[in-house]
């Protein structure tokens, strides 16, 4: 890497590294002013800041983004000439965004821009773009939308205005239908309201093809002078083409007996309920045929399905059978498997995979924690394969983001939950220090055990009974303020405020059905199969989503950025593995409530910028 640097820049970099580490006695090289972009300054302190900026730029150009950002954040702005502040802002913002450090990008943009006495239109455009990207990284999509919309208004030319509109459209795609409706109801800027309405058309049409043309006609009539009316987003044009074709016959491969029979029956019930609900809503109803995977081989089932003129297969359910399909180069029919195989990069383009993956949930907890600005995690999971898989998934996702796992523990037969928490919080180290002091002093000094203070939050994966013990135990260990983020396993799905008060403050991710219980279809399913829903509620939600997903495989293949609002979450895919974006809630008063957008924020910067 270093051989790419000029001799001058290499000497300069070595000098700055010496300055940063406090080696003030290092002799300064004679630098030819004609080759140096900096202006000579009499003030040594100012010269030092300019050298830091130059070194940070060199490091960024060579791909050493973290080192560059470390230098940038240490620059004293008040010693830097104003003409160099913009150069610093661009470097700080782009480096932080490259590292996906959204919070830090917002901090640096705010810190530096306040000192700019004049900002050109071009600079305003770029600042808004940086902020939009940073807000998106932190999960504040409404704020990202506002910044991208601002870009469309101040773009210096048509080309960059189009780029800003594309970015605005991308940010709008991140919001669910419910979030878009809330945003629309609050919006007072007419043109932006038109964009939000158009995004709602897209979301509603994805779920109901029959409504597409009517919704588009209504939008165009109301917003005939809107910028998007002149040139519709490309995905809407493709959606119009795809909406003209409907799936007429679904085949479902499920076991009628064996270990998975009860789970399969729940999914079958859900498919039937969703089919009937489509009729109630005057939506398209494909024919459904069920095939018993216990009575024939997969090849025989596919042959029978083809003879019956099935167009898309839902199933199988068993992981072992999904593994078999993964290894095939081609399948007789497009297939939505109801589980995930072991190969994340399977080459079979006829196969989509959809399931309830706790490992996927752990990854979403890591993502949410990172968005909140956390960087150091504790992990608590149960012993056994279930807990170990989820723990490994969380740790891998967290480290890939750049986070640090300061400690992890499992609980179960060999270690109680209380003991695991004590070890996580390193209370025993505090007790050992007390014992050493007692021996040294020969008397008992006043002692209060102190937990560790080097972690930002606790990742929790546990069943409901165990989860109810965590917060009381943390309070006893004087760590009640430690944020806890958990998977859906902590919630039974049925409100129980009396017993769940012990989980107050815990944030967790779960399926839409459990966190939006007013859903009409869910009410019908619960009324028809109350006992089964209590036990297999998440599988019922999965069956409901499978019904729609199977009819939208071509759409998801053609428009991979498209998301469906489902009972199990917002549905998208990567390499034909369906990803569920869960909703977030927090126990308040023993009941799961929507997680406040500013929950767990470590500073008030985002609030300030949103208000601005």
In short:
The protein contains 27 helices and 15 strands.
Give the uncertain stretches in residue-range form.
1-7, 20-38, 429-434, 445-449, 603-612
Name the structural class.
alpha/beta
In helices, the fraction of residues equals 40-55%
> Number of DSSP helices?
27
Number of individual domains: 4
What is the CATH superfamily of the largest domain?
Tetratricopeptide repeat domain
Labels describing this entry:
612 residues; alpha/beta; Serine Threonine Protein Phosphatase 5, Tetratricopeptide repeat; Rossmann fold; 4 domains; seven-stranded mixed sheet; five-stranded parallel sheet; 27 helices; 12% strand; disordered C terminus
Overview of this structure, please?
The chain has about 600 residues and is α/β, with parallel strands linked by helices. About 50% of the residues lie in helices and about 10% in strands. It folds into four domains: about 1-195, Serine Threonine Protein Phosphatase 5, Tetratricopeptide repeat (Alpha Horseshoe); about 195-245, no CATH class; about 250-355 and about 520-575, Response regulator (Rossmann fold); about 360-515 and about 585-610, Rossmann fold (3-Layer(aba) Sandwich), CATH 3.40.50. Helix 4 (about 85-100) packs antiparallel against helix 5, helix 4 (about 85-100) packs parallel to helix 6 and helix 6 (about 120-135) packs antiparallel against helix 7. The radius of gyration is 28 Å and the shape is globular. The protein starts with 6 loop residues before the first helix and ends with a helix.
């Amino acid at each position: 890497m270093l051989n790419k640097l000029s001799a001058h820049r290499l000497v300069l970099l070595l000098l700055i590294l010496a300055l940063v580490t406090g080696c003030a006695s290092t002799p300064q090289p004679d630098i030819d002013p004609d080759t140096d972009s900096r202006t000579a300054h009499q003030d040594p302190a100012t010269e030092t800041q300019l050298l830091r900026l130059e070194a940070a730029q060199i490091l960024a150009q060579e791909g050493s983004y973290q080192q560059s950002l470390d230098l940038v954040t240490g620059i004293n702005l008040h010693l830097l000439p104003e003409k160099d502040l913009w150069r610093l802002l661009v470097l700080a913002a782009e480096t932080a965004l490259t590292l996906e450090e959204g919070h830090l990008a917002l901090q640096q943009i705010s810190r530096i821009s306040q000192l700019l006495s004049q900002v050109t239109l071009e600079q305003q455009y770029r600042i808004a773009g940086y902020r939009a990207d940073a807000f998106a990284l932190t999960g504040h999509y409404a704020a990202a939308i506002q910044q991208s919309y601002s870009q469309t208004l101040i773009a210096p030319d048509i080309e960059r205005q189009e780029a800003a509109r594309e970015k605005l459209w991308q940010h709008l795609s991140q919001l669910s239908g419910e979030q878009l409706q809330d945003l629309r109801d609050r919006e007072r800027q007419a043109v932006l309201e038109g964009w939000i309405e158009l995004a709602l058309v897209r979301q509603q049409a994805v779920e109901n093809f029959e409504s597409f043309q009517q919704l588009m006609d209504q939008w165009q009539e109301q917003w005939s002078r809107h910028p998007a009316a002149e040139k519709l987003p490309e995905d809407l044009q493709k959606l119009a083409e795809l909406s003209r074709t409907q799936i007429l016959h679904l085949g479902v491969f499920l076991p009628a007996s064996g270990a998975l029979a009860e789970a399969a029956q729940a999914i079958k019930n859900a498919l039937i309920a969703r089919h009937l609900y489509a009729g109630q809503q005057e939506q398209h109803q494909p024919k459904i045929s069920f095939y018993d995977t216990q009575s024939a081989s997969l090849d025989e089932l596919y042959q029978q399905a083809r003879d019956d003129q099935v167009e898309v297969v839902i199933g199988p359910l068993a992981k072992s059978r999904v593994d078999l399909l993964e290894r095939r180069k081609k399948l007789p029919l497009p297939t939505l498997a109801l589980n995930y195989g072991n190969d994340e990069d399977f080459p079979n383009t006829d196969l989509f995979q959809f399931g309830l993956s706790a490992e996927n949930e752990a990854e979403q907890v890591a993502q949410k924690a990172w968005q909140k600005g956390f960087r150091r995690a504790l992990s608590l999971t149960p012993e056994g394969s279930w807990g170990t898989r989820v723990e490994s998934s969380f740790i891998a996702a967290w480290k890939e983001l750049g986070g640090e796992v300061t400690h992890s523990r499992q609980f179960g037969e060999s270690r109680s939950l209380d003991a695991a928490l004590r070890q996580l919080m390193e209370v025993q180290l505090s007790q050992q220090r007390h014992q050493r002091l007692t021996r040294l002093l020969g008397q008992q000094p006043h002692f209060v055990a102190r937990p560790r203070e080097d972690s930002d939050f606790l990742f929790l994966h546990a069943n409901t009974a165990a989860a109810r013990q965590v917060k009381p135990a943390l309070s006893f260990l004087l760590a009640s303020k430690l944020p806890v983020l958990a998977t859906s396993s902590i919630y039974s799905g049925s409100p129980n405020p009396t017993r769940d008060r012990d989980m107050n403050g815990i944030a967790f991710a779960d399926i839409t059905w459990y966190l939006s219980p007013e859903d009409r279809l869910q009410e019908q399913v619960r009324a028809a199969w109350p006992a089964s829903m209590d036990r297999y509620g998440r599988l019922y939600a999965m069956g409901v989503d499978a019904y729609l997903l199977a009819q939208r495989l071509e759409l998801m293949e053609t428009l991979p950025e498209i998301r469906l609002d489902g009972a199990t979450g917002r549905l998208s895919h990567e390499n034909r593995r369906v990803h569920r974006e869960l909703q977030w809630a927090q126990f308040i008063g023993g009941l799961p409530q929507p997680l406040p957008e500013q929950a767990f924020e470590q500073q008030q910067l985002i609030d300030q910028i949103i208000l601005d």
